[in-house]
Amino acid sequence: MADPLGKQLRDEVEKRRDAGLYPPGVEEELDHLYERVVARPASVDTASLHRLVAELATPFYASDAEATSRVPGGRLVHRWVARLRRRHEQQLIGQLNDFAEAVKNCLEALLKSIESTPTHDHPDLLGQVETLEVQVAELRRRINQ
Q1: Is-contact 130 138, C-beta < 8 A?
Q2: pLDDT by residue, tens only, the chain of 145 residues
């Protein structure tokens, strides 16, 4: 923390430590708990991510509007406008499909990385373990006072 707020926090912690406001070992316990939480990889539902990535494989396309009109000559005008529009839409759709393919490739690479990271956790038990760690730390503080 090289910023002014970081310096202010360090100074405040040092003042409180010197004043005896922190029980012995509390900083080490917090450091230990922080390292355990940071080191624990989060569980990821990769099946739903795979479904979302698969949806990117569906290409964009232009649908043709019907060239019908109740106005005399309107059908001919609609067909002519559709031809002009189609050429520009095809360029735009090509760009969109290229972008979607690049995003899909990027997400597939990220998924592969996520899946190759070893994780074996039991979320229901992790919460209980963390609660027990907090309770043990509190008991240690009380014993050391």
Answers
A1: no
A2: 467 887 888 888 888 888 888 777 777 877 777 777 666 566 667 788 888 888 888 888 877 767 777 888 888 888 888 888 888 888 999 999 999 889 988 888 888 887 776 665 666 666 777 777 777 777 777 776 6
Q: What are phi and psi of 55, to 5 degrees?
A: -65, -25
Distance CA 143, CA 66 (A): 82
The domain total for the chain is 1
Residue type, 64: D
Q: Which domain holds residue 47?
A: 4-144
Q: Where are the alpha helices (DSSP H) in the chain?
A: 4-18, 26-39, 46-55, 74-116, 123-144
DSSP conformational letter for 27? H
CB atoms within 10 A of CB 36: 13
